[in-house]
Design goal:
By secondary structure, the chain is mainly alpha-helical. The protein has one domain (about 15-340): Orthogonal Bundle (ABC transporter involved in vitamin B12 uptake, BtuC). Helix content is about 70%, strand content about 0%. It has helices at about 20-40, 50-55, 60-75, 80-95, 115-135, 140-160, 175-180, 190-205, 210-220, 220-225, 230-255, 270-280, 290-310, 315-340, and strands at about 165, 260. Strands 1-2 form a two-stranded antiparallel sheet. Helix 4 (about 80-95) packs parallel to helix 6 (about 140-160). The radius of gyration is 21 Å and the shape is globular.
């Protein structure tokens, strides 16, 4: 009879590292190589502060990439995160705005800020639960479900903001979380929370049964079910986890800019998917790492920043992203094939 123990990683013989570690190191090498190449082409690019900026300016996408990566490893997609970012941000503003404003966009429910955050997170988790319901219960492909819920979430945000944004009649405390700096530096709280979340995700992935079960489900879902793993409940928790991260990102962005904007987070779901693929996460599930995703984000940030430095138009930046993804997937496939000869 198959048991969970059968899925535990066995010690490999004649090999110094796993394929996953090999791909992660390859991604790290590519990120370093691209940074050095950009530094050779662009003046003043090779600076420590510039490297810090590459991370801090992309904290939101990196945070979203954590939840997206876990779901990809399990064999599922989550394209709803960008819509959840918009929805949670708009809800936090609407709930916190005082009652009786001068116009519909300045009038909200007048909740205390903490309660507004809790209710906005509830809206984000509702989208996550909806994803899990259709994927787990009704067996609809996750790429279709999450594409639909992304449009639902952003559509609700557009209705609440009338296609515009809400940025008036807010309490003074609203902008506190998004603009709080830490340790006497210019680093803001959202960046610190991203780092903490990243460390926790790595610990879950490497040291906890929850992380290993995610891999087992992605690599062999039938065998995982036969071993006694409640696959549906596990995938449900992953969708709630991803929605919670997206909700927190939306609330922090709304706090940082002191506004709820229905188009905030636009295309973030695709950027989160791109950095996961660049980082070596297999689109078919069962393979990848959060650390790889992080360095995938560095690769994307370097490419985008270098393109801006070379005064390329945003249209060309989209093409560069597409080329980077194709090259990354081809390189990873070729490297693994060569390694396993």
């Amino acid at each position: 009879m198959t048991s969970v123990a059968d899925f535990l990683p066995q010690k490999e013989t004649g090999r110094r590292m796993s394929d996953e570690s090999f791909i992660t190191l390859l991604v790290v090498g590519v990120a370093i190589g691209l940074f050095l190449l950009a530094s050779a082409v662009l003046p003043n690019f090779f600076q420590f502060q510039n490297l810090v900026n590459l991370v801090t300016n992309n904290w939101a996408v990196i945070s979203l990439g954590i939840g997206v990566s876990f779901l990809l490893v399990s064999g599922n997609f989550d394209l709803s995160v960008g819509g959840v970012v918009a929805l949670s941000g708009v809800l936090s503003v609407y709930f916190a705005q005082a009652v009786g404003g001068a116009n519909p966009l300045s009038s909200g429910l007048g909740m205390p800020y903490v309660l507004a955050i809790i209710c906005a997170m509830g809206g984000a988790l509702a989208i996550g639960a909806l994803n899990a319901l259709f994927v787990v219960r009704f067996k609809i492909p996750s790429i279709i479900v999450t594409l639909g819920t992304m449009m639902v979430a952003r559509g609700v945000a557009q209705v609440i903001t009338h296609g515009s944004q809400r940025n008036t009649n807010l309490p003074d405390s609203f902008g506190f979380l998004g603009n709080l700096t830490m340790f006497g530096t210019s680093i803001k709280l959202p960046v610190v929370l991203m780092v903490v979340l990243l460390l926790v995700a790595v610990f879950i992935e490497k040291k906890m049964v929850f992380g290993r079960v995610t891999y087992w489900i992605g690599s062999n879902p039938v065998a995982a079910t036969l071993s006694g793993i409640n696959r549906g409940w596990h995938v449900t928790k992953l969708y709630l986890f991803s929605a919670a991260i997206a909700g927190a990102v939306g609330i922090l962005l709304a706090s940082e800019f002191k506004s709820g904007f229905s188009n905030r987070g636009l295309l973030m779901e695709f950027d989160a998917l791109v950095i996961a693929l660049l980082g070596g996460v297999a689109i078919a599930g069962g393979f990848g790492s959060v650390i790889g995703m992080f360095f995938g984000a560095i690769i994307l940030a370097v490419v985008t920043s270098a393109a801006t430095g070379l005064v390329l138009s945003p249209d060309w930046q989209f093409i560069l992203k597409a080329i980077a993804v194709f090259l990354a997937i081809m390189a990873q496939t070729w490297a693994l094939a060569l390694r396993n000869r």
